[in-house]
């Protein structure tokens, strides 16, 4: 939501999160006394039934271990009991096991094995399994290696996936309606046919009416950018609040942005900070990075550089480009981290690779000046170009100079001069001085 072309301050990378999809068929029994593990001697009727081989008990026990209900959360034991129940013929257990395998929850992650579990569950009529299978078919699954054996992957089949999603949507399955709409919205504006866009909005409205939080967030994006409708910022904020209150972390992060900038609501930095904290608690990378800025600058909280570094690291572990860039700056300047040009270079490289424009500029400068590694004019020119393509003014100027001088790139004075003029027109003082404007 920083600019309309992006339609959202945060990406929709959590839109297809497995967490929202865990099947509710594994009912929770209100049994007394949490147990600590398989060797517990505390009387436990559910566990006793599971040990006797009762499939429904095994399924429910796995669910309790997964959610941490009635006993401490233990994903590994959840997987153990889901496997037992699946071996006993429980289709729901196959689905739950697929969720664990896809997300690496209590098991070594394997999208390929998850897909096989979903296939089994889908064949038995488990609707969420049909949905997950369709979602994996959209992009396909590459081969996986297990020990020395190569497991063949699954070829992408977008048309079949869309057909499966349409069947589910027609049957009233709201996540399928949301994803069908998202497939249209994810395309470039010029590639969306008017009738497809109208259908996408109708699907989202239906899913919103049914209480689907992800659909609320996507429809909020449409309200913000005027996609398929007139822009409506107050409704956007209302939809984001509903989605955030329903537990959607990305909606919480976007709502924080709205309060910070007064979009659809009155500016309220304290409310922005509150929603940002909620999003960060859920692990949303951009929220973690943004929260780090509050602690770094001492806004609404006492300045706390170590806390900011901690939050940057948490976001960087999820490959957030801005957090990686900030850690690079910390390492380069020796603020909060030991000064280390090599470490700074590694952070800038990671940030640049995930598309962070500031990381790209700093990486280019490191290559140009030989900081943290040997100087490489070609690499410097490459990253200046990448950042200039994203509209960074300094990168336009620097890449323009590369083209004019032929350093690191084939000489092209005309294009170089054009870039310098663009930078000068955008207010870059050094470009204006070079052009004597």
Query: Percent range for helical residues?
Result: 55-70%
List the secondary-structure elements in sequence, H or E.
HHHHHHEEHHHHHHHHHHHHHHHH
Number of strands: 2
Oligomer: single chain
Biggest sheet record: 2 strands, antiparallel
Task: Order the strands across the largest sheet as they lie in space.
Answer: 1-2
**CATH fold-type name of the domain at 1-6 and 152-265:** Serine Threonine Protein Phosphatase 5, Tetratricopeptide repeat
Q: How would you classify the helix and strand content by structural class?
A: mainly alpha
Quickly count the helices: 22
CATH class of the domain at 1-6 and 152-265: Mainly Alpha
Overall description:
- The chain is mainly alpha-helical and 437 residues long.
- Among the domains are: 120 residues, Serine Threonine Protein Phosphatase 5, Tetratricopeptide repeat (Alpha Horseshoe), CATH 1.25.40; 102 residues, Tetratricopeptide repeat domain (Serine Threonine Protein Phosphatase 5, Tetratricopeptide repeat, Alpha Horseshoe), CATH 1.25.40.10.
- It is built from 22 helices and 2 strands.
Describe this structure in a few short sentences.
With 437 residues, the protein is mainly α. It has helices spanning 45-51, 55-67, 75-87, 91-103, 111-123, 127-139, 158-170, 174-185, 194-209, 213-225, 233-245, 249-261, 269-281, 285-297, 305-316, 321-333, 341-353, 357-369, 377-389, 393-405, 413-425, 429-435, and strands at residues 144-146, 149-151. Strand 1 and strand 2 (149-151) form a beta hairpin.
């Amino acid at each position: 939501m920083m600019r309309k072309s992006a339609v959202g301050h945060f990406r929709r990378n959590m839109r297809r999160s497995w967490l929202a999809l865990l099947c509710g068929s594994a009912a929770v029994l209100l049994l007394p006394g949490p147990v600590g593990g398989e060797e517990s001697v505390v009387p436990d009727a559910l566990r006793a039934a599971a040990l006797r081989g009762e499939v429904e008990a095994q399924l429910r026990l796995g669910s309790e271990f997964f959610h941490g209900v009635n006993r401490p959360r233990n994903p590994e034991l959840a997987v153990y009991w889901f496997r037992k129940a699946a071996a006993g013929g429980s289709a729901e257990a196959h689905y739950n096991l697929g969720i664990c395998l896809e997300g690496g929850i209590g098991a070594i992650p394997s999208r390929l094995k998850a897909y096989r579990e979903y296939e089994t569950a889908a064949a038995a009529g488990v609707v969420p399994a049909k949905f997950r299978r369709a979602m994996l078919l959209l992009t396909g699954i590459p081969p996986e290696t297990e020990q020395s054996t190569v497991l063949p992957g699954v070829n992408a089949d977008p048309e079949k996936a869309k057909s499966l999603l349409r069947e589910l949507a027609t049957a009233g399955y709201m996540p399928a309606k949301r994803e069908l709409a998202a497939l249209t919205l994810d395309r470039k504006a010029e590639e969306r046919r008017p009738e497809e866009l109208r259908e996408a909005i109708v699907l989202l409205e239906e899913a919103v009416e049914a209480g689907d939080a992800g659909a609320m967030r996507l429809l909020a994006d449409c309200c913000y950018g005027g996609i398929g409708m007139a822009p409506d910022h107050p409704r956007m904020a209302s939809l984001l609040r509903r989605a955030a209150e329903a537990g959607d972390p990305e909606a919480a992060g976007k709502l924080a942005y709205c309060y910070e900038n007064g979009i659809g609501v009155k500016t309220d930095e304290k409310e922005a900070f509150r929603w940002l904290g909620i999003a960060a608690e859920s692990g949303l990378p951009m929220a973690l990075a943004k929260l780090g800025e509050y602690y770094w600058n001492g806004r609404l909280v006492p300045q706390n550089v170590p806390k900011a570094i901690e939050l940057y690291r948490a976001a960087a572990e999820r490959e957030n480009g801005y957090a990686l860039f900030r850690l690079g700056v910390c390492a380069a300047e020796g603020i909060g981290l030991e000064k280390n040009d090599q470490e700074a270079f590694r952070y800038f490289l990671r940030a640049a690779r995930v598309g962070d424009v500031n990381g790209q500029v700093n990486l280019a400068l490191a290559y140009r000046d030989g900081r943290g590694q040997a100087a490489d004019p070609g690499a410097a020119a490459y990253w200046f170009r990448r950042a200039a393509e994203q509209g960074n003014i300094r990168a336009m100027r620097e890449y323009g100079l590369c083209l004019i001088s032929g350093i690191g790139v084939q000489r092209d004075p005309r294009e170089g001069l054009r870039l310098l003029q663009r930078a000068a027109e955008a207010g870059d003082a050094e470009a204006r001085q070079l052009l004597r404007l």
